Each structure stands twice: as C-alpha cells, then as structure tokens.
C-alpha cells in the first residue's frame, strides 16, 4: 500500500502480509463479471499516512452518486492500447459517473451491464487493461467514498467508451457477513 512508482522504493510503501483472501461465490472469469469482488484480510492493519487512508462505503442504494458526478480511478494499467506494458507510475483519471442505460447501450448486445455494476468515464479518460481491482473513489462533503472496483471495459481502452466497475453497494451485506464470520473465527 502507498506505492507510487512500482520500480522505485519511495519510503511511502507499506508491505503487508495477507492472511486470507475471500472471493465472492458468484465470481467467474466469464464475460458478465457478476460477483467480481474479493476481500483481503491482512495479518496486521495498515497504518494511516498521507499516502494510505481509508475511504467510506455507501451503505444503501439511495445514496448512489448521480450521473455526471466526477470521481477518480487509479491504477498502473496501460495508457496506450497498442502496448501491453503497464505503467511504472500510478496514474489517476477523473471520470464522470454515467447513467446505467447509457452505459448498457455502449456494450449491448455483446455484454450485459448489470445493476451490480457502475459505469464511469467515456469522456476522454478511462481505466484500461491492468487497472483491474483498482478503486473508483468519489468525493462528497469532504469525504471519499469507495464506490467501485475496476472490473472490465472495452478491450481497446478507447477513451470514449466507459469503464465498468463492481458497485460496492451491491455487496455490502456479503462484505459484512465475511467480516462478522471472520471475527467469530478469531
């Protein structure tokens, strides 16, 4: 955690050991990507620093960020769709949340965009191959909310096609059950 340049030690990194990984039961590598979420239990907690900070979760569907709200996605994914290499330095893209139907229209009939997904981007910047698993974070009232996890999108990484993210709100109960179950086992 806290890494910026994957090939340089900057002193901001926290190397933490993983105790357990929980993968959602519905997950498969199929095209629909339903259940594209996992939780990682660390052996020790991360330290809050300038480079590593927690984000809030939205707990109910009524709190969704509306289309047009500008959020941020980060990752080391490709910036050039014709090159397979990932980036050395963490990149951030500002991406607007999109209307669900508008997003579905970009991918139909090849792919389905389910309600358990949120779309963002398609307006000049986007997530790309190699960014999967990274955050979609939105700011509201001086707080950052982890809204999505980079899941999939157009394989050519075109900036005018939106990225599709796992909507965390759809998995709040699953996450709570895992955390409660795990606490009972400790």
TrEMBL record:
Keyword annotations of the record: Disulfide bond, Hydrolase, Protease, Serine protease
Gene Ontology CC annotation, any one: extracellular space
Residue stretches making up the Peptidase S1 domain: 1-180
UniProt keyword annotation of Protease present: yes
This protein's record includes keyword Translocase: no
Cited InterPro entries: Peptidase_S1_PA (IPR009003), Peptidase_S1_PA_chymotrypsin (IPR043504), Peptidase_S1A (IPR001314), Serine_Proteases_S1 (IPR050127), Trypsin_dom (IPR001254), TRYPSIN_SER (IPR033116)
Coiled-coil annotated spans: none
Gene3D superfamilies: Trypsin-like serine proteases (2.40.10.10)
PROSITE patterns per UniProt: TRYPSIN_DOM, TRYPSIN_SER
GO biological process, one term: proteolysis
Superkingdom to which the source organism belongs: Eukaryota
Gene Ontology molecular function: serine-type endopeptidase activity
Family affiliation: Belongs to the peptidase S1 family. CLIP subfamily.
Alphabetical list of PANTHER family matching this protein: PEPTIDASE S1 DOMAIN-CONTAINING PROTEIN (PTHR24264:SF54), TRYPSIN-RELATED (PTHR24264)
Protein name listed in UniProt: Peptidase S1 domain-containing protein
UniProt organism field: Ciona savignyi (Pacific transparent sea squirt)
């Amino acid at each position: 955690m806290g890494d910026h340049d994957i090939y340089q030690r900057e002193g901001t990194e926290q190397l933490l050991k993983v105790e357990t990984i929980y993968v959602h039961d519905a997950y498969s590598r199929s095209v629909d990507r339903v259940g594209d979420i996992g939780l990682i239990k660390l052996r020790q907690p991360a330290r809050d620093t300038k480079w590593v900070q927690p984000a809030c979760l939205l707990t109910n569907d009524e709190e969704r960020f509306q289309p047009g709200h500008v959020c941020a996605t980060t990752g080391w994914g490709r910036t050039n769709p014709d090159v397979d290499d990932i980036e050395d330095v963490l990149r951030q893209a500002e991406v607007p949340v999109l209307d669900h139907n508008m997003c579905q229209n970009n991918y139909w009939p090849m792919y389905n965009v389910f309600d358990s997904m949120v779309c963002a981007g398609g307006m000049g910047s986007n997530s790309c191959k190699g960014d999967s698993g990274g955050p979609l974070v939105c700011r509201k009232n001086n707080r950052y909310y982890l809204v999505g996890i980079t899941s999939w999108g157009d394989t050519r990484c075109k900036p005018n096609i939106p990225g599709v993210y796992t909507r965390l709100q759809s998995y709040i109960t699953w996450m709570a059950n895992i955390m409660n179950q795990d606490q009972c086992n400790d």
